C-alpha cells in the first residue's frame, strides 16, 4: 500500500527528472534547423551531442558520491536550477563554441543518482522493481513532452532560437520545489519502509566511495557495460532519428520530429511493464527478464531496418517495439540493481554505485554523436542499424554474465526480496 507521502515523493521526483528532458531532447529535433541557419557540418552537429553528453557522463560519477556525502536533495535541487540557468540564453548565440559551452554546462547539471537515492529509501525491496519501472517512464514521457513542446515553440516562433527559454524556466522551478519538498525519510522524520533494516543504510567507514572500490563490487562492471550499450543505441534514436526520417525516408520536418517519439512512447509502456512483470514472474532472477527484453529490442531493430520503406504503419510499430524493449530495462539496470548493490552489507553508497553505472553507461551517449556523424558520412545509414543490433546483443550478453552475481546478492539479503 502506497502512502500519501510516498506518492508526493514519487510524483515530484517524476516531474522534476522528466523536465530535464525538455532541455535535452530538442537538440535532436532542431539539428536540421541549426545546420541550415548556422551552416554547420555533420561533424559539428555530432560535436553538439558530445558537448551535452560527455559532461553528463562525468557528472553521474562525481555527483553520485557528492549526494552520499552532502545529501542527495541539495545536489539534485541545485543541479536542476543550474541546468535551467545554463540553457535560458541558448537561442541568443550563433557561435558553435558558445552553443557547445552551454550544452556542456547543461549536461554537467544532470543528476539521476541523487534523484533515485531519495526515491529508493521510501519503498520496500519488494516494491522497488515495480516502482523504479514506473518511475523510469519519466525519462521517456519527458522526451515526448519535450519534443512536442519544442515542435510547438518552433512552429509558433518560426525559429529554433526560442525553443529552450520556457523549458529552462520550468526546470529551474522544479529545482526550487526539490529543495523544499523532495526529502529522504530521515529528513522528513519518518521511519524507513518495513523491510529495511534500520541499520542497513548507516554510513560505515568501510563504505566504498572511491571509483576503484566501486567497480570491484559484484556485477558493477557488467551492468555498466549493458547500460553503455543500451544508452548508445537509445541516443542514436533520440538524436538522429528525426534527421534520418527527414533526409533518408522523406518525412516532412514536423512529422519527422513528432513521429520519432514513437520510440519514447514504446519506452513509457516498456518501462512501466518491465518492472512489474519481473516482480511477478522472476523476482529472484530480475536480469532474466532484462535479457529477454534487450534481445527483443535487437530483433525489433532488425525488423525496422528491413521494413523502413514500407511506410508509416510499419515504421510506427517497429519504432514502438524497439523503444519498449530497449527502454523497459533502463531503470532496473540504472537504478534498482545499483541501489541494491550499494546497500548490501550495510554499505551506504547507493548513489555512488548508481552514478558509476550510469556514468560509464552514459559514455555510450557521448560516443554516439561523433560515431553516427562519421558512419553516416562515410557509409550512409546502411551500416548504422547493424551496428545498433550488435551493440544491443552485447548488452544482453553483459546481463547474462551479471545475473549469477545479482541472484547471489538477492539470496544473501533474503530469499524472497526483489532487487
List the defining traits of the structure above.
single chain, 419 residues, mainly alpha, 18 helices, 0% strand, disordered C terminus
Write a compact overview of the structure shown.
This protein is mainly α and 419 residues long.
| Quaternary structure | single chain
What can be said about the biggest beta sheet? none
Instruction: Name the overall outline.
Output: globular
Fraction of residues in H or I helices: over 70%
Helix-strand sequence: HHHHHHHHHHHHHHHHHH
Number of helices: 18
Low-confidence stretches: 196-206, 415-419
Give the percentage of residues in beta strands.
Answer: under 5%
Number of strands: 0
Gyration radius (Cα, Å) is 20 Å
What class would the helix/strand composition place it in? mainly alpha
How far apart the termini lie comes to: 19 Å
Q: Give the integer mean of the pLDDT values.
A: 84
Q: What report would you give on this structure?
A:
By secondary structure, this protein is mainly α. The chain is built from 18 helices and no strands. α2 packs antiparallel against α3, α4 runs antiparallel to α5 and α13 runs antiparallel to α14. The chain is globular. The C terminus is likely disordered.
What is the element layout, followed by pairings?
Layout: H1 4-24, H2 26-38, H3 42-70, H4 72-87, H5 96-108, H6 112-121, H7 125-135, H8 137-157, H9 165-181, H10 211-214, H11 220-247, H12 253-259, H13 262-281, H14 286-306, H15 312-327, H16 330-343, H17 350-379, H18 384-413
Helix pairs in contact: 1-6, 1-8, 1-9, 2-3, 2-11, 3-4, 3-5, 3-6, 3-17, 4-5, 4-6, 4-9, 6-17, 7-13, 7-16, 8-13, 11-12, 11-16, 11-17, 11-18, 13-14, 13-15, 14-15, 14-18, 16-17
